[in-house]
Specification:
Layout lengths: L2 H9 L10 H18 L5 H5 L5 E8 L3 E2 L3 H8 L6 E4 L6 E2 L4 E8 H33 L6 E3 L8 H9 L13 E3 L1 H11 L4 H12 L7 E6 L2 H17 L5 E7 L3 H11 L8 E6 L7 H4 L6 E3 L2 H4 L6 E5 L1
Parallel strand pairs: 6-11, 7-8, 8-9, 9-10, 10-11
Antiparallel strand pairs: 1-5, 1-12, 2-4, 3-5
């Protein structure tokens, strides 16, 4: 398996983020139910006071170009209301221009006004994430040997944010804590306390030793904060592979390294036979403007919390006719 295929097998789970999947449907249902409950959509005093119950047709349209996402989720939620007829004009992941019609709705005015903000919030946030992701993925494709773009767990809307990254062409990373082993700094600290506070390198070695024994996992990942820890992880993994050639793929997350540090380290290990069984991820304040620098480091993946924790909403609006 080539490295890019290995990256996809370890980092891409977007194909699971569909409403035919029970976990994803549950996440969508719970989030939108929470939105509706705390917006009190069944008790809209304004529309009741003004007696706004007449039938109406409305459209939701894009007010900018980009990648649309959230259509499937809105359709799922509107399906709970028998009085709503809705037609979708685009699918999630579609590239649209300013003015593109996304949905046409026919429904009572009171229902439209009570649900308007939920619909626009869902499409706005998810399309914003998808659009930003697509921009970075497109930039990466212009750079030779650029690493793949992945999300992190900094996802206020959980699986919906991950789906939006997928619609933009990015990698989802793991979807849930039960999905994969990812040993981070706090895990290592806790393990070190348990082991009697040995050296940082010894803690990393023990963590890798334990992780690779878990059956049925295709990949395990460990976060390291120094070259010495990275070497310790590889040495422990080498021992594991010698004992068990079917050990899972190892991912080394190089956290808060400088691009030059990463370049030197990966340069060291490229000629190691173990290199073909190990993937390298860069993370830590990686942004659009620094992506070209990271492209030359040799990492296979860069993960950006900014894809989901500080994205700009996609500009979308509703127009009545």
């Amino acid at each position: 398996m080539n490295r890019r295929a290995l990256v996809n097998s370890c980092f891409q789970y977007g194909q699971q983020l569909t409403l035919t999947d029970a976990d994803y449907q549950g996440c969508v249902n719970d989030l939108l139910h929470w939105m509706a409950a705390y917006d009190d959509v069944e008790d809209d005093w304004t529309t009741t006071t003004l007696n706004l119950y007449q039938p109406i047709t409305a459209v939701i349209q894009a007010k900018q170009g980009g990648i649309v996402c959230g259509i499937e989720e809105v359709l799922f939620y509107l399906g709970k209301y028998s009085e709503i007829a809705v037609q979708h004009h685009v699918k999630d992941g579609s590239a649209v221009e300013k003015g593109t019609l996304l949905l046409t709705l026919r429904l009572p005015m009171n229902r439209l006004l009570s649900l308007e903000r939920i619909m626009l919030n869902v499409i706005g946030r998810m399309s914003g994430i998808a659009t930003q992701t697509q921009r970075l993925v497109a930039l990466a494709k212009t750079i030779p040997d650029c690493p793949a773009i992945a999300a992190t767990r900094k996802t206020p809307w959980m699986l919906l944010d991950k789906k939006a990254v997928y619609c933009g062409g990015g990698l989802t990373h793991r979807l849930q804590l039960s999905h994969a082993i990812l040993i981070k700094d706090n895990h290592l600290f806790a393990l070190g306390q348990q082991l009697g506070k040995p050296s940082a390198e010894a803690i990393v070695q023990k963590a890798v030793e334990l992780a690779v024994t878990v059956k049925s996992l295709g990949c395990v990942e460990i976060e390291v904060e120094s070259v010495e820890q990275a070497r310790a992880a590889l040495n422990s993994y080498r021992t594991a592979v010698e004992k068990n050639p079917d050990a899972p793929t190892m991912i080394v997350l190089l956290d808060n390294f400088t691009p030059s540090e990463v370049t030197r380290f990966i340069g060291e290990v490229r000629t190691d036979p173990l290199y073909n069984r190990v993937l390298f991820e860069g993370s830590g304040d990686i942004r659009e403007e620094t992506l070209p620098t990271w492209a030359t480091t040799g990492v296979d993946v860069v993960s950006l919390g900014a894809l989901t924790h500080s994205t700009k909403n996609f500009n979308v609006s509703m127009v009545m006719s």
